[in-house]
């Protein structure tokens, strides 16, 4: 196979020759030697400040022999701190003892007031008063119950049974008896021989109608009060 040759070989050679030390093979380059008169002096490299300017306006006023009216001399009074502390202790209000609660045999104690064992809640203004949300919820439940009862009463009124008066009962009985007579006449006119299916079915239908009419007439005559449901 052919040997790989990089395309950056010329650039690498140029950089190597450019950065090559000049005195590596020929010795150090000739540098100017400093003069013996230019030796390093003390504090020569420290930064030098600009010369200070004298203020002409800052002139001191002459001292006055008489003090000004606004002058208040400082009166130093010696204080007896021992007597002051003693009087403060004598006149001071004694500290109230703090209540602690001990909950173990080793004497572990903690403050009683912030522990929650002291019933502070009984001193609240709203203690024992029913909360507003409970009252509101009870009113809503009561209103819903009233609406439900009114709806039930209205539904019962719609489904209430109607009482038949004597006139209506008499007219219904007469109509049932008239219908029974017509059905009975039709039954008596039937042929004695029922040899076909149609004749058998017709006879059974008329007999059923007669039985139903007899049952209705007997029920109306037997009961004094008759009620009819509103369907």
Task: Please give a structural write-up.
The structure is a single chain. By secondary structure, the chain is mainly alpha-helical. Helix content is 42%, strand content 5%. Strands 1-2 form a two-stranded antiparallel ribbon. Strands 3-4 form a two-stranded antiparallel sheet. A hairpin with a 6-residue loop joins strand 1 and strand 2.
Gist of the model:
The chain has 231 residues and is mostly helical. Helix content is 42%, strand content 5%.
Distance between the termini: 110 Å
CA radius of gyration: 65 Å
Q: What is the SS-derived class? A: mainly alpha
Biggest sheet character: 2 strands, antiparallel
Tell me the quaternary state.
Answer: single chain
**Average of per-residue pLDDT values:** 83
Basic shape: elongated
Neighbour order of strands in the largest sheet? 1-2
Helix content: 40-55%
